[in-house]
Design goal:
With about 280 residues, this protein is of the alpha/beta class. The chain has one domain: 3-Layer(aba) Sandwich (Glycerol-3-phosphate (1)-acyltransferase), CATH 3.40.1130. Helices cover about 35% and strands about 15% of the residues. It is globular and about 50 Å long. The chain starts with a helix and ends with a helix. Pfam families: Acyltransferase. Pathway: Lipid metabolism. This is Phospholipid/glycerol acyltransferase domain-containing protein. It comes from Emticicia aquatica.
Length: about 280
């Protein structure tokens, strides 16, 4: 009970503005709280509420959401937590994570209840391709809920490309980690069993975060690629949080990349075979 109450207490910040920094010690409702990118958290929480009400029905009523492992989230610190997951749709995956994180804040465990949206966790970010978040009104709205936008150097508009590496992406993820929790999809695509991008390993080496592996399933069967339209209702959506792990500072980029591939289960032959059978 005390742990749940603690989730609602104000978190002092290092805002460069002295007024906002001092107010953060008593700002229970987060009215004057801003993230490191200058966005107001009160607006972010409002967007999470507005986006969360209709999407709750889609993931937990029209489909069957099964969540495991939220006990690992209950004792996590408020900053420097890095969630890494496989990726199946542009938006449904992230939206589901937000619902779960808000419910964990309220102490609901593996249950996702819509009341948690009225006081959501605001210190959340997710890594997304900038081209995905700029295409249409709904993606732009979702972007305001905490997107850290990156320019993919290897893919654009569904085609393979080669362009300069977006060096600002790592810096922005580091800012997000210093402020709160960041969700990342290290494959950088919704294509199943795609290779792990080494940028994830560099972020882990540079920030030494608590890494929480997540494995999801069912979203590709339930929704279209964007995650905004149904393909098949009454589908079981699985989200499994694994025990947090810590990487040694001496671990190489290649070693971290290999571990990431294993812990998000993107190298399992039997899963690849099952996916190919489902695609036929």
């Amino acid at each position: 009970m005390l742990r749940v109450i603690k989730n609602f207490l104000p978190i002092p910040n290092n805002d460069p503005n002295l007024f906002f920094r001092y107010v953060s010690y008593i700002d229970v409702f987060g009215i004057f709280d801003r993230d490191p990118f200058g966005n107001w958290l009160i607006l972010k929480r409002f967007i999470i509420l507005i986006a969360g009400i209709p999407t709750y029905w889609r993931i937990a009523v029209a489909n069957q959401l099964k969540v495991e492992g939220t006990e690992y989230l209950e004792k996590l610190p408020n900053q420097n937590v890095y969630f890494i997951s496989n990726h199946q749709t542009y938006f449904a995956d992230v939206i589901t994570f937000y619902h779960i994180f808000c419910s964990v804040k309220w102490g609901f465990g593996n249950r996702v209840l819509p009341i948690a949206l009225f006081a959501p966790r605001g210190r959340l970010f997710y890594v997304a391709a900038s081209e995905t978040m700029k295409d249409g009104l709904i993606p732009k709205l979702f972007s305001l809920a905490g997107a850290i936008l990156v320019e993919r150097s290897w893919r654009a508009k569904g085609e393979n490309v080669k362009r300069e590496l977006d060096t600002s992406a790592g810096d922005n993820v580091s800012k997000g980690l210093k402020f709160g929790w960041v969700v990342s999809f290290p494959q950088g695509t919704t294509s199943p069993y795609a290779p792990i991008r080494k940028g994830t390993a560099h972020i882990i080496k540079d920030n030494n975060p608590i890494v929480v592996p997540v494995v999801i399933d069912g979203f590709r069967r339930a929704f279209n690629k964007s995650g905004l339209s149904y393909k098949k209702r009454n589908t079981e959506l699985k989200v499994k949080f694994k025990e947090p792990i810590y990487f040694s500072p001496d671990a190489t980029v290649e070693e971290i990349t290999e571990v990431v591939k294993n812990i998000i289960e993107q190298n399992m032959p039997e899963r690849i075979a099952r996916w190919k059978n489902e695609a036929v």
